[in-house]
């Protein structure tokens, strides 16, 4: 089922990493190591003590080292630029974009196992990488696929709980409700009630996290079929990998759509720790809330239009452009439309970012996918025109820190091309993928014994008085 693109590419990547003369060399080298065991849990069990020691050493030797100054602007500006979180699974560079355990998206596309030669990475491989920091082999990915398949069952009460909501309820409301209903089977909650020792917290967290990752595609597919396909559900197919099976349960059998889903789930999974969904999941989990409670909270953050819901907003906005001006809209007409959106007090969805300052590499890899599979699609061509038209306008506004497109600017037209046209559903797909990142870090939160998150807040009066004295 799975094709592994081999040791030669990995060696090339390694030797390139070794040749680079920057300080991160040794870290990158470690990060592209391969691992050997087939059982992910045992692999983790081996890694945890050394990472616990590493954290202890960091704390005892460098605990008092300063990481920067906090300004009033930072406090009033949504904590931008304030380093305040430990997040092991990925790191975002403002110019380069995301690296999953040190690997960029193009590097992941090269070294992670794929379903076919030259194909997109399998999300299971990315999950293995996020959890262990090691590139998995074909056999490890197959074994993880099987583990997820064996956990992919959803109790009937979950579907009944979703059915209690009106079918018109937003898909993200239905999704978060479904995840909350899954919570009744939390192994962590049961173990905590029985008095589990805190050194063992990561174990039931692993169980819950892996089950949750396995279950979310079923819940998500149920919601899609309930809302848009008269409730006619499609059973899972255990012969398929995670991404392909998700597409299959939604009702899509085209091999290209299966490839798209693998890419989609891989690239949306993690975006370091400060984004609203990841940070929410981490914060809630810091109270020792179990993975289901934490991930449901994360989904509620993802459902906001400035965050994950932007993928819905982009396609709806693009469709409104087409409705008003037609598919073959000129760049001049498009400029007018963008200005009209801005003048009505709205944002241009899919552009800008809280941290990134260049085009999102997640946008770029989706663009490459489109150029390969749907170069003539009129909506793809419209998205390409937006790439030329929007950044100069946002720059002209004078206040937008990043005028370039983000991940959400592209995903909708790809899905729409393959027949997944219901834009209101798109954030659910983002949510399924984000389970991989949030849950991976959550296992590490418990393994490292990270504490309750509780930053200090102040009032305007406190700030005024402080500034007078400063
Ligand atoms: N269209 C119009 N105005 C914008 C945009 C945009 N795309 N991006 C930023 N601005 C405005 C922003 O609203 C703010 O205005 P004001 O001072 O009047 O409140 C000003 O520019 C400065 O904002 P920034 O510091 O550049 O951005 P910030 O870090 O505050 O926000 C986003 C980041 C992502 C919320 C913002 O760029 C945005 O609203 N983008 C559109 C929505 C979107 O695509 N979100 C998805 C992000 C990715 N994801 O999946 O989560
Ligand atoms: C994400 O993927 O979470 C978004 O790009 C938002 C962010 O990183 O802040």
Question: What is the oligomer described by this structure?
Answer: single chain
Strand order of the largest sheet: 1-2-3
> Helix- and strand-based class?
mainly alpha
Cofactors, ions and other ligands in the entry:
nitromethyldethia coenzyme A, D-malate
Shape annotation: globular
CA gyration radius, whole angstroms: 22 Å
Q: What is the helix fraction of residues, given as a range?
A: 55-70%
The helix tally amounts to 22
**Could you name the ranges where pLDDT drops below 50 across 5 or more consecutive residues?**
1-31
How far apart the termini lie comes to 64 Å
Pattern of helices and strands:
HHHHEEEHHHHHHHHHHHHHHHHHH
Secondary-structure map:
Elements: H1 6-19, H2 25-31, H3 40-62, H4 72-76, E1 90-93, E2 97-100, E3 103-104, H5 105-111, H6 123-132, H7 138-151, H8 156-163, H9 171-182, H10 187-194, H11 202-228, H12 242-250, H13 255-267, H14 276-286, H15 291-302, H16 310-325, H17 331-343, H18 361-373, H19 378-397, H20 408-417, H21 426-447, H22 460-469
Antiparallel strand pairs: 1-2, 2-3
Helix pairs in contact: 1-2, 6-13, 6-21, 7-11, 8-9, 9-11, 9-15, 10-11, 11-12, 11-21, 12-13, 13-18, 13-21, 14-15, 14-21, 15-21, 16-20, 17-19, 18-20
Bound molecules: nitromethyldethia coenzyme A (NMX) and D-malate.
Brief write-up:
The chain is built from 22 helices and 3 strands. It is mainly α and about 475 residues long.
Describe the structure.
The chain has 470 residues and is mostly helical. Helix content is 60%, strand content 2%. The chain has 22 helices and three strands. A three-stranded antiparallel β-sheet has the order 1-2-3. The N and C termini lie far apart (64 Å). Residues 1-31 have low confidence and may be disordered. The structure holds nitromethyldethia coenzyme A (NMX) and D-malate. D-malate binds next to loops.
């Amino acid at each position: 089922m799975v094709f592994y693109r081999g040791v030669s590419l990995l060696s090339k990547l390694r030797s390139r990493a070794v040749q680079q003369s920057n300080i991160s060399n040794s870290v990158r080298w470690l990060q592209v190591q391969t691992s050997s065991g087939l059982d992910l849990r045992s692999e983790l069990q081996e890694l945890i003590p050394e990472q616990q020691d590493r954290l202890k050493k960091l704390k005892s030797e460098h605990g008092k080292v300063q990481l920067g100054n906090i300004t009033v602007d930072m406090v009033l500006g949504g904590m931008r630029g304030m380093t305040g979180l430990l997040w092991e699974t990925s790191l975002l560079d403002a110019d380069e974009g995301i690296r999953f355990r040190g690997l960029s998206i193009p590097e992941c596309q090269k070294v992670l196992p794929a379903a076919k030669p030259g194909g997109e990475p399998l999300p299971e491989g990315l999950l293995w990488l996020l959890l262990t920091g090691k590139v998995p082999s074909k056999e490890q990915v197959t074994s993880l696929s099987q583990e997820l398949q064996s956990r992919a069952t959803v109790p009937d009460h979950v579907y009944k709980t979703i059915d209690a909501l009106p079918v018109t309820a937003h898909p993200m409301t239905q999704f978060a409700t479904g995840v909350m209903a899954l919570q009744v089977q939390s192994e962590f909650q049961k173990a905590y009630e029985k008095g589990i020792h805190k050194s063992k917290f990561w174990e039931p967290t692993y169980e819950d996290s892996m089950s949750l990752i396995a279950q979310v595609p079923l819940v998500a597919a149920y919601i899609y079929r309930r809302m848009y396909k008269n409730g006619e559900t499609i059973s899972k197919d255990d012969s398929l990998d995670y991404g392909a099976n998700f597409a299959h349960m939604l009702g899509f059998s085209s091999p290209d759509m299966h490839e798209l889903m693998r890419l989609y789930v891989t690239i949306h999974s993690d975006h370091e720790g400060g984004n609203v969904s990841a940070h929410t999941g981490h914060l809630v989990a810091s109270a020792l809330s179990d993975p289901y409670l934490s991930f449901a909270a994360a989904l509620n953050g993802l459902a906001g239009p400035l965050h994950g819901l932007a993928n819905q907003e982009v396609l709806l906005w693009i469709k409104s452009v087409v409705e008003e001006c037609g598919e073959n809209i000129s760049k001049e007409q498009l400029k007018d439309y963008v200005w009209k959106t801005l003048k009505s007090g709205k944002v241009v969805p899919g552009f800008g970012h809280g941290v990134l300052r260049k085009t999102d590499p997640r946008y770029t890899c989706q663009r490459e996918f489109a150029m390969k599979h749907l170069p003539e699609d009129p909506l793809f061509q419209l998205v390409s025109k937006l790439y030329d038209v929007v950044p100069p306008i946002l720059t002209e506004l004078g206040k937008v820190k990043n005028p370039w497109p983000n991940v959400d600017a592209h995903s909708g037209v790809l899905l729409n091309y393959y027949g997944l046209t219901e834009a209101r559903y798109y954030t659910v797909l983002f949510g399924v993928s984000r389970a991989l990142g949030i849950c991976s870090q959550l296992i590490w939160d418990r393994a490292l014994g990270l504490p309750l998150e509780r930053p200090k807040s102040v009032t305007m009066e406190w700030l005024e008085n402080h500034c007078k004295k400063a």
